[in-house]
């Protein structure tokens, strides 16, 4: 592992720890610092930035919270630039996305619209290159969804896995990465809103149509099946909202 010497610019009057973290982060994103490079010690960083060691510790905490650095104890220990996995980065995005939804930044109709366009892109790609493993994964989830005895929670979890398998079937790392956030963060929120008013049989039939189209490598049929499911979910969302308004009206009355 190499220890890279980096020169940093002067600091402004804003939070010193924040500025230090941003300068180190910039060194990581522009490639000056690479994965597994070792940062200078707290004492050396404090001397470079002309700040106290507690300020450096706070800056490093900020970077660690973003999974940009990791610490290791022992004779060969120190602070190193992290090499985050796709799962770690996707998980962070999922958490942030769910927070934005809870704060009202994203509306369900917007989520459905964006998800439809992205999934149409996915099924068109998957129709051309999906493998048997992904098709079998979708078929297994459909079998789970057909079971009348499974709970709403388990049905929703299987629904998420089915759509993850569609993304996996694209064989495209970027699409899989992007869809992780859409499926893992946004789809459960959709399900939470509409699960009481949707019919499982309809969802299962739509999943069967998607799978059949992908097995036949029919991109147009797969795209149409995605659009039909989105339209159904949008209609069910409107029904759920109407039900909610009636309940509120009844309580007010």
Whole-number total of structural domains: 2
Walk across the major sheet and give the strand order: 1-2
Query: How many DSSP H or I helices?
Result: 10
Which outline best applies?
Answer: elongated
Order of helices and strands: HHHEEHHHHHHH
Number of DSSP-assigned strands: 2
Q: In the CATH scheme, what's the topology name of the largest domain? A: Four Helix Bundle (Hemerythrin (Met), subunit A)
Report how far apart the termini are. Answer: 70 Å
Q: What class would the helix/strand composition place it in?
A: mainly alpha
Strand content: under 5%
**Overall residue-averaged pLDDT value:** 86
Low-confidence stretches: none
Could you describe the 3D structure shown?
- By secondary structure, the chain is mainly alpha-helical.
- The chain has two domains: 16-81, Arc Repressor Mutant, subunit A (Orthogonal Bundle); 87-252, GntR ligand-binding domain-like (Four Helix Bundle (Hemerythrin (Met), subunit A)).
- It has ten helices and two strands; from the N terminus they run αααββααααααα.
- The chain has helices at residues 16-29, 42-49, 53-65, 86-102, 108-129, 132-146, 152-168, 173-194, 200-215, 219-252, and strands at 69-72, 78-81.
- A two-stranded antiparallel sheet has the order 1-2.
Task: Give me a quick take on this structure.
This protein has 253 residues and is mostly helical. It has helices spanning 16-29, 42-49, 53-65, 86-102, 108-129, 132-146, 152-168, 173-194, 200-215, 219-252; strands at residues 69-72, 78-81.
